[in-house]
Amino acid sequence: MFKTEKLKFDQALKEAQAREKAVENARNSSKAWDPKSNTLAEVYKILANEEKTKLRQKKSQINSKQGEFKCYRCNRSNHKTSECRFKNVKCNGCGKQGHIQAVCQSKPVNYIGEQSQAEDATSCQYSSKDEMTTTKHLFYHEDFFAIRAESKKTNATERADPEFLDVKLNDKLIAMEIDTGTYYSVISENFKERYFPNHRTETTNAILRGYDERVFKISGELRNIVVTLFNETRQLSCYVMSGTGPPLIGRQWLMALGCWPLSRLLNKMNDNKILKMNESNI
After folding, report:
1. Of 44, 99, 229, 256, which has the fewest Cβ atoms less than 10 A away?
2. Phi, psi of 159 (to 5 degrees)
């Protein structure tokens, strides 16, 4: 600049300001694309978020066209996400609010397996009182609490022997152990072959989990069994499992037969005892 001949002050000032501006622009540009700077990371983050948003929108459009739009809170397609009844519940899988455990993406295993659980957990047909609680009760359907203690020395006064119900299964009187810790009713393969050798065992994709989350192997499902208890008759299904354990009647059958909650079962058992006593006195 100082080598320019006959340089005037105004011209020199403009030249200096222009060069200063150019240096400042170059510095800002270098900073914006410096890999160590936060600015570049923010640029990448914005671009990534925009790409994800476009992908979600495209997927939603495709699902909508195919009639398969599903609420991410409960995995159902019969309502808008903003209207989902589970938007205020807390997930039992990750503890976050706004979705149920069956669709939780924070856990490697989704607790979906039984048809009835999937229907109950995603139907969104609960009352406002239910909305205020967590969905923990929804996942009791798959629980199968198989806990048995073995001891050589047992104080007889502390024993709590199992209770049995005389249940008719296809007109065969069977003593079934009451198991309120499981939702489903279960019989063993040995029991099935002994009492229902000709009843077809259907395949099932149901999943039963123990107290420690261990998955139990299910051999199949017996469907359309005519079950009678306390003069109530229903067509029900039960699962067949390996082993030689006793037949268990769970909450699902008890509910279907009018014996659940537990107070109803106790009342019916008491009425049945009184009826038998009266019949014996006749």
Report:
1. 44
2. -70, 140
Mention every residue, 6+ apart, whose C-beta is less than 8 A from residue 4: none
Predicted confidence band at 255 (pLDDT cuts at 50, 70, 90)?
very high
Strand pairing report for 186-188 and 164-169: unpaired
Q: How far is CA 208 from CA 6, 140, 225, 236, 239, in A?
A: 95, 10, 20, 18, 10
φ/ψ (deg, to 5) at 266: -65, -40
The SS3 call for residue 108 is coil
In contact, 179 and 171? CB cutoff 8 Å: no
For the CA atoms of 64, 65, 67, 68, the dihedral, rounded to the nearest 10 degrees, stands at: -60
Q: What is the pLDDT of residue 160?
A: 82
Distance CA 196, CA 240 (A): 11
Between CA 252 and CA 181 the distance in angstroms is 11
Write out the two tokens for 85: 């009844």
Three-point CA angle 188, 189, 194, nearest 5°: 100
Backbone phi and psi for residue 245, each to the nearest 5 degrees, phi listed first: -70, 165
The C-alpha atoms of residue 17 and residue 240 are separated, in whole angstroms, by 88
Give tens-digit pLDDT for 137-193. Answer: 444 455 565 555 555 555 556 678 889 999 999 999 999 999 998 899 999 999 999
CA–CA separation, 33 and 253 (whole Å): 67
Reduced to 3 states (helix: H, G, I; strand: E, B; else coil), residue 266 is helix
Predicted pLDDT of residue 193: 94
